[in-house]
Write a structure and sequence with these properties.
Elements (H helix, E strand, L loop, with lengths): L4 E6 L6 E7 L4 H19 L2 H11 L6 H15 L2 H20 L3 E5 L13 E5 L9 E10 L7 H7 L5 H17 L6 H7 L1 H6 L4 E8 L25 E8 L2 H17 L2
Amino acid sequence: MARYIQIDDINVPHDFVKKHITFVLGDVTTYEEFYTEFQRYLLQSVLTQRPFEGLMLFLNGDPIDEKHKRYIINNVRRIFINEQHFKGLVGEHLFSFYFHKKVRDILWAHGPKGRSSAEPGIDFVTFTGDINDKDSIKITIWETKTTENTISSRASQIYDFFSEDGSFEENIDSEINAVQELFKNEPNNFLKEVVEELFEIVINREFCIGATGVSSNLTSTNDTFKQFADCFKNELTKEQRLVKFVFVELLTKILDDLRDRIWNKLLAP
């Protein structure tokens, strides 16, 4: 489990459950350990196996075929060419990286999107619980926003996403379809049964919603995101609304290093 990720439960006087996730990357050794793990995780998420293996060889200083290199450049271009979209995509993957590194009962996850945070759809869907206990399996739909300002600056976009007739309602059916397609050939178990029942779970409000703010600004108050308590008001319990703030003090350095160590290296003559 990643020693540089710190998790704190935060008590708030609102109808949601809140955690602070802090990436503690202050010394060079810890930062490089994190960066190596996160770079690998990000590239595995956005590329299929052969291009990923070729890119890792290239980044480690080994030569690769020029046609393979051009293929990789074309397939990661959209990640890097728009600064805001790049920042958003990295933020979404930092959040999913935390999930895969620190959440012990994660069973399966869908997302984040692989090319740009601006692509329509749902950012991240997690399935947590005990694979041998169907009633324990919890589905959470996450909306993630990334900023180098205070997290509260992006709060209204998360409220809008989960609002009546908002982006959640527009995209949930296609997301259900995508998840169910991925499970078609999986062996039968309780997780597959839950996936097959996603429509009923959503209609009956038997899922959780999650608001995630990723920021280099390590500040929040009890009232930050307080209006999230009004999302699906009277339909969800406090325990079905989850807020996670992901604080990454070196967010700008991470963005710069990913660009320099991957994209600029690919483009260098």
